[in-house]
Amino acid sequence: MAHPSPPAAHDRGRSAPTPPDSATWDHPEPLAVESAPVPEYGSGSLADLLPTLAAGMGVPGTTAAIPELTPADRNCVFLIDGLGWEQIKDHADEAPYLHALLGGSRGGTGRPLTAGYPATTATSLASVGTGLPPGAHGLPGYTVRNPATGELMNQLRWQPWTKPRAWQPYPTIFQLAQDAGVHAAQVSSPTFQNTPLTKVALSGGTFHGRLTGEERMDLAAEQLAAGDRSLVYTYYAELDGAGHRYGIASDTWRGQLMYVDRLVQRLADQLPPRSALYVTADHGMIDVPFDEEHRIDFDADWELRAGVALLGGEGRARHVYAVPGAENDVLTCWREVLGEQFWVASRDEAIAAGWFGPHVDERVHDRLGDVIAAARDDVLIIASEREPKESAMVGNHGSMTPAEQFVPLLEVRS
Question: Is the pTM of this model over 0.90?
Answer without folding.
Answer: yes
